[in-house]
Amino acid sequence: MHFFVNWYYQLVAQTALCIPKLKEHSRKSSYAAKRTESRHNKRARVEGIRIFENTAMRNMDVDTEVIPTSRSDSVEAMDGQANSPFLDAASMFDNDRDDNDFDDNVEDEVNEIEIEDFNSEDPFAAPDMPENEVHQFIAIFTVLFASRHVVDKGAAVLIEFINNLLRIYDQDFQLPTSLAGLQKMTGFSAITKGIKIFVVCQDCHTVYQDIVSAPPRCVSSKLGARSACNCNLTKSISSGALVAKREYVYQSIKNTLSVFFRRPSFEAKILRGTIIDPMHNLFLGTSKRLMDRWIDEKTIGPEEFASMEKIAETMVLPRDYTTLTTKIGKGFSYMKADEWKSWVLVYSPVLLHGILPPLQFKNWMYFVDACRYYVKPSITFDEITTAHSLLEKFCNACNVDYTATILTCNMHLHLHLHECIRDFGPNFKTNGKDGFEATYMKNFVQNAYKGDYVNAVLKSSSQIPFIHTLSKLVTTSIPAATVTTLSSRPFRLQAFVQGYTDPYNPPKGNEPLPPSTFPLKYKKPSVMDDSNYLHLLEYYQVAYNLPDLASYQDTSYNRPALDNQIIKLKSIDILGQHYRGTNNSTISRGSLVQAKFVGSNGNIILGFAGQIQYLFTHSFQLPPTHNLHLTRMVHDHQHVFAFIKWFRTSSDRSREDDGVEFCLPTFSPDSYHSIIPVHRILLEVATATIATSRNVSKMLVIPLPKKLYA
């Protein structure tokens, strides 16, 4: 893997590509036979790879113009696909290299390909295109329209219709009668010409050229085995034809780059084309490395692990954070990326306080605060700048607090995360798949290059008016789903965000919720508890300025009354946050939240932590004489609330700089503030219970990054 990473970074830095020279190869010799042959001196080849990897890591910063790639006799067998990755990639991971792959004369094994070589052939050449520019537009429009909106059988009808129109208007031009012919004439079929389909053994993963040349059974030998794999490579379908049991679909890198290098400023942008995954760069990298360093330096030992585990057992985390208890006590063994994420964001601000030396803990919190920004699915440019500044402080402090060996290439990439996120967005994730089916690969490649195709074939200035029409067929749009909401007003993200960030103008509870929140998960209708009902009544009196709003128990008929019928919700998802009530249990993950309130003096905004007891909807019709009716503004009667018990506040502010707050592990008395629209919930929190030096029980509240999947 080190070899591949180094190869890729040098490729991006130098914008050069190297491929191996091709040897003469007998047509009778299959790829599988060559792989079987190459397994004899396995140990020597493994050692060669190890030596080469170490050398590549040491020479990572060397400014080279070419990248050495080992020679492969079986490359030419793959239909001239010299830059196919499966050959070298397969042998790389299986450690299948020839004995002379990594000798000192590797430069002799290299061919250079200059950037100009990618421009030698037009990837969208269409020699059969009609000379008439209007006829060109008709042909291009038809092929793009068919690729997006029409199935293959319908395309033939569309072509016939257009040909009839051309005859009616006495045009001396006709489209090819088949979609394949039309694609060939316009050069559209050239988009997918670099796609190759290979047959793969399901057992040993040996790659064969195609279904025609592949044997019926795998002839490769497994590692350490003396006999062939003998796994079936094909199967018979209902028509009687033989198809591959497993296929590997590959799009030519060279063809792809030949398109990319025709795009304006691609060469200037290629240096910023390397995506850094924050999950692995931050959590599997630096957090793990520092923990190993603290253990090696005896900063954290068995006694510290035991005390940390004891506190960790009291902690309550939201549902999408992984809990850590036994792994802390066992010294963080076999930790995965999501577990390191929980450690950094939730556990470490609490557990490392008092364990690490003060300066090291302060430096660690720079890293934690930066991670709190970078893990958010939505992030502002100001937040990116702040996170970058925090990581700069962290890296500079590491250079002082630790020896130089702590500064790795992975840590250097921290300082490039801000560029990566500005260009590509936050929170990258990978999705492991065996490979695209050929149909999906073809559609994917076509959609990716449609814009390049249009720009390439419309070369005349007189064709500019056609581009606007064709652009509607180039970009892919996803139709919005029809969702039943509770509000007659459209959802506005900016107004929704203001609802939980500005307590001076709080929402009332009937404002639009994100469409992704629906459908709501209802329970059966019920009657609200009388004590809670009184708080709901007071809430409406204050929120709508209705001091005369009466209880349902009021028998007078000259005052509007409030209904006590509610419908509880099992849970609710709001832009990625999953909230739920306690369901009559002491601890419920997803029930701990924070909201903003205006302080008693009216000038200070305070964040209060609490626990959702239950979520519910309530219908409230305004009296006919209310000012809202007089202004003819729309009033939606359905409200969505959370009944929350708020923790008592503490005067202890000693941990505010660490992003951790103190409160007491008991609830304040219920009031109308316990009724809060779900729109006002700021974020989820985690909690931990600790005992002070005076044996006073306190609760630590750890606010977690606000997710915003909008």
TrEMBL record:
Source organism superkingdom: Eukaryota
Protein's recorded name: Transposase domain-containing protein
Species per Swiss-Prot/TrEMBL record: Phycomyces blakesleeanus (strain ATCC 8743b / DSM 1359 / FGSC 10004 / NBRC 33097 / NRRL 1555)
High-level lineage: Eukaryota, Fungi, Fungi incertae sedis, Mucoromycota, Mucoromycotina
